[in-house]
Design brief:
The complex is a heterodimer of chains A (about 110) and B (about 110). Chain A contains no helices and eleven strands. With about 110 residues, chain A is mainly beta. With about 110 residues, chain B is an all-beta fold. The relative contact order of chain B is 0.34. The chains are: A mainly beta (about 110), B mainly beta (about 110).
């Protein structure tokens, strides 16, 4: 079955800096890779996703890249703001298998 | 996106009892899933709730412990049976829109087993 590894587990940046979170997956048949943001006490919120026929996707300050050959994908957040502080999860597949999460802290 | 509700939002239960969690969506969806999230942890897929047929369980989860129903395209239930303190967790349903892969989560049910 699918296995998703996520790094780093914690990430601290200054406001305005960029943040990058990386994930690898094991099942070459997986073709859908979403990213979720979860604030304390709230449900996971879908922030961006990418399908296997696309290499990169952007939405304002966030972007996701996918390398199918290497089986890894990354989340890029530019111009970070304090409200970006949360736990971010990557996932793969249709019945999603999640990475362990990255706690992002943005200090002003 | 669809509006998803779960009942109850939280409960405290005695060990050995069972709790049924309901997930209701305001529109028809193709797929519904159940996840568990233990405090400070990631989400773990329990099963895919199939409409009109038995649920598809992930490794480590069995129907006797987590029976699931999905009688129509807008509703599903997850029962946590013969509960132990290790079942204390947040249980979330998610739905997948027709024609897309996007999944959206319900607000979750916080279960505490004493």
């Amino acid at each position: 079955g699918e296995n998703v590894e996520q790094h780093p587990s914690t990430l601290s940046v200054q406001e305005g800096d960029s943040a990058v979170i990386k994930c690898t997956y094991s099942d070459s048949a997986s073709n859908y890779f979403p990213w979720y943001k979860q604030e304390l006490g709230k449900r996971p919120q879908l922030i961006i996703d990418i399908r296997s026929n696309v290499g990169e996707k952007k939405d304002q300050r966030i972007a996701v890249t996918l390398n199918k050959t290497a089986k890894h994908f990354s989340l890029h957040i530019t111009e970070t703001q304090p409200e970006d502080s949360a736990v971010y999860f990557c996932a793969a597949g249709t019945a999603l298998i999640f990475g362990k999460g990255t706690t992002l802290s943005v200090s002003s | 996106s669809a509006v998803i509700s779960q009942k109850p939002s939280r409960d405290i239960c005695q060990r050995g009892t069972s709790l049924t969690i309901q997930c209701q969506v305001d529109s028809q969806v193709t797929m519904m899933f159940w996840y568990r999230q233990q405090p400070g942890q990631s989400l773990t897929l329990i099963a895919t709730a199939n409409q009109g047929s038995e649920a598809t369980y992930e490794s480590g989860f069995v129907i006797d412990k987590f029976p699931i129903s999905r009688p129509n395209l807008t509703f599903s239930t997850l029962t946590v049976s013969n509960m132990s303190p290790e079942d204390s967790s947040i249980y979330l349903c998610s739905v997948q829109n027709r024609g897309t892969y996007e999944q959206y989560f319900g607000p979750g049910t916080r279960l505490t087993v004493t």
